[in-house]
Amino acid sequence: MSRFLLSPALVPVRSAALARAGAVAVATLLTGATAQGAAQAPDATPSAARALYVADCASCHGADGQGNPRIDAPGLAGLSAAYLARQIDGFRRGYRGRHPEDVEGMEMRPMIEGVADEDLATLGAWLASLPLPQPSGDAATGAEATGSDPARGETLYTACAVCHGRSGEGNDALGAPRLAGQAGWYTARQLRKFIAGVRGSDPDDTSGASMRASVADLDPRDVPDLVAWVEMLRQRDPGE
Ligand code: HEC
Ligand code: HEC
Q1: Ligand 1: does its nearest atom lie under 6 Å from the Cβ of 61?
Q2: Cβ atoms of 1 and 154 closer than 8 Å
C-alpha cells in the first residue's frame, strides 16, 4: 500500500486553469459581479444551468464548483446527481443546516430558499457533470496534514470503504458520496459534525443517520489521519 504514499503523482498540481478560476471566484466574491465568472470561466457554456449557478451559487462555491475554503463552501463539481439532490432537499426541508451548532449549514440553508425546485434539479444534474476540481494549495489540508499519519488513516479507512468505495468514489445505492477530490478541510469538518451529532441526528435525515452510526466509535483525534488518507484517494483510479 505504501506505493501510493511514494507516488510522485501525489504532489499537488496547481493548474493554470484552476488558478484562473480561483481568481475569478475571488473577484466575483469581492465585486459581486457574477457575470464576470461566466465570461471568464475556462469552458463557459451559455447554458441555463451555468447561468443559474453563476447567479445563485458561484459566489461561494467558486466559478467551476471547486469550493472556497475562505467561506467554508465545499467543492460541488463531480458529486453525484443523487447525492446533490438529497443534500439540496435536506437544506430545503431543514434537516440539514438546522442544528444550532451547524454554523456553516445555517449559512447554506437560506441560499436555496428562493430557488425554484426545477432550477435546483437542473443545478444538481449540471454540477454532477462537471469535472472534479484539481487539488490546489488552498483546498489541500494544510494544517490538517501537519503531523498526521496517512498510513494509519488508510487502516482506519477500511471501515469507510464498505460504503464510500476503496478509492473514495462513492456509492449511490448506499447514499454514500464521493470523498476523493473533496477538500480535506471540508471532509474533516463534516466528520467532526457527524461524530458530534451536529449533522445526521435530525429524525428526517435517514442517510445522515447511517453515516453517523458508522462513525459513532471514531475518536475526533482520528480525523486528521483519516483525512490525510482520503486526500490521497483523489490520485487513484476508481477500482484500483
Ligand atoms: C453564502 C454562501 C453560499 C451560497 C451562495 C451557496 N452555498 Fe452551498 N454551501 C455553503 C456552505 C458554507 C456549505 C457547507 C455547509 C456545511 O459545512 O455543512 C454549503 C454546502 C452545500 C452543499 C453540500 C455539499 C456536500 O458535499 O454535502 C450543497 C449541495 C450546496 N451547498 C449547494 C448549493 C447550491 C446549489 C447553491 C446555489 C443555489 C449554493 N449551495 C449556494 C455556502 C453557500
Ligand atoms: C454505512 C455506510 C457508511 C459508512 C461505513 C461510512 N459512511 Fe460516510 N457517508 C455515508 C452516507 C450515506 C453519507 C451521506 C449522508 C447524507 O446524505 O447526508 C455519508 C457522508 C459522509 C461525508 C460527508 C461528505 C460530504 O460531501 O458532505 C464524509 C466526509 C464521510 N461520509 C466520511 C466517511 C468516513 C471517513 C468513514 C469511515 C470512518 C465513513 N464515512 C463511513 C455512509 C457511510
Answers
A1: yes
A2: yes
27 alpha carbon – ligand 2 mean position (Å): 33
Q: Which domains are seen in the chain, by residue range?
A: 14-129 (1.10.760.10), 142-235 (1.10.760.10)
Contacts 24+ apart (CB under 8 A), 97-100: 98/202, 99/197, 99/198, 99/199, 99/201, 99/202
Does the reported pTM lie above 0.85? Answer: no
| Ligand 2 binding site (Cβ under 6 Å of any ligand atom) | 86, 159-160, 162-164, 174-177, 179, 182, 187, 190-191, 207-208, 210-211, 214-215, 218, 226
Tens-digit pLDDT string for the chain (240 aa) = 333 333 333 333 323 333 333 333 333 333 333 333 333 333 334 478 999 999 999 999 999 999 999 999 999 999 999 999 999 999 999 999 999 999 999 999 999 998 999 999 999 999 999 998 876 544 444 445 568 999 999 999 999 999 999 999 999 999 999 999 999 999 999 999 999 999 999 999 999 999 999 998 899 999 999 999 999 997 655 544
Beta carbons of 79 and 164 less than 8 angstroms apart: no
Listed residue (240, 229, 87) closest to 160, CA to CA: 229
Ligand 2: centre distance to CA 164 (Å): 7
In total, the chain counts a number of residues equal to 240
> Which DSSP letter does residue 205 get?
-
Asked whether the beta carbons of 15 and 60 are under 8 A apart, the reply is no
Which three cell numbers, joined as nine digits, stand for 58? Answer: 458561484
Nearest CA owner, ligand 1 atom 40: 57
Tell me the residue type at 91.
Answer: F
